[in-house]
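User: My instructor asked us to take a sequence, write out its structure as tokens, and then describe one feature of it. I'm not sure where to start. Here is the sequence I was given:
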Amino acid sequence: MSNDRKSAPANATATAHENAPSFLSTDLGKSAVLIVLALLMLFAGRLVSPSLGGLNQISAVLVLSSFLIVVAFGQQMVVLIGGLDLSVPSMITLGGLLTFAWTPHGVAELLLVALAVMAVTGAVGMISGLGVTLLAIPPFIMTLSMGIIIYSACLGATRGTPRGQGSETIEALFSGRFLGVPLIILLVGVLAALAIILQSRTTFGRFLYATGTNRQAAYIAGLPVRRMTVATYACSGAAAGLCGLLLVGFSGGATLTMGQSYLLPSIAAVVVGGTAITGGRGSFLSVVAAALLITTFTTVISSIQIEEGWRTILYGAVVLIAILAMRDGTTPLTWRLLPLLRGNKKQQST
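Assistant: Let's start with the prediction itself. The structure tokens for your sequence are:
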């Protein structure tokens, strides 16, 4: 009887520890962990630079992360079906060059230009999807080839010098505020919410995850696997084109290299956010949080006076640590280490 009483608290403690990771294993929990890490990193940067950690700096990080969030949406759509889009930099450049050349004035014209830009880059992405599905070209090769073709076409059309002018209407997105919040943050927030609904609450989203989980089984079940594949690459192209449009408003111009710095961060945001690289599992909410973490880290190390090589090493180390902490998509690394730590404490006490 006494042994049962003694074992009861131990069983209760064990049950509590087993239930503890339940929140952290959810998409909301993983997103919370990534955002907390981003905030800690930002405030820790105040030790190096007093400007970091303030409200203005947080707002700047949110604005900068908006571009990565838009690109990461399209990249994640492709990764969810087991693919990869390496044409993202060229698509961003194409979207920026078209926006810079067309120069929209007024809200109505801006919407038309945005739709036109996304239609063009989405059509190019569709070509990549058709190459992957109909010609059975590996996504790595197909998207890399399309990226080279698009970049070469942009170089030939502009002869190295983009022609056009900045759009005051787009620039107003970055200078305007609503209730003290920059308009670009609100816009990307709405787009992110729509993306989450698309993935989790629509038939398209269910087909997307089913295709990525088991492509052959989805095909046997009668799902439009080929159309889903083409659609995801089209979404990636359209998202990259939209990012190029936003970058024109942010910088006031377009360059042939404006998209080069977004390929690896877009993939890192998807992977760090817990999306399985083989497809079938992932949440855009976690990808948004990962994009915030990556942008925060980039901002912090940019303010530190260290060589570019060491910055790259630190960037890779942080991405690797974040992936290890969130891998398996179920239990963060810290919770899996708790039983080992408790075991060591018991051994020391004995």
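For the description part of your assignment, you could build on this observation: Confidence is low (pLDDT under 50) at residues 12-20, 329-338. Try explaining in your own words what that tells you about the chain.
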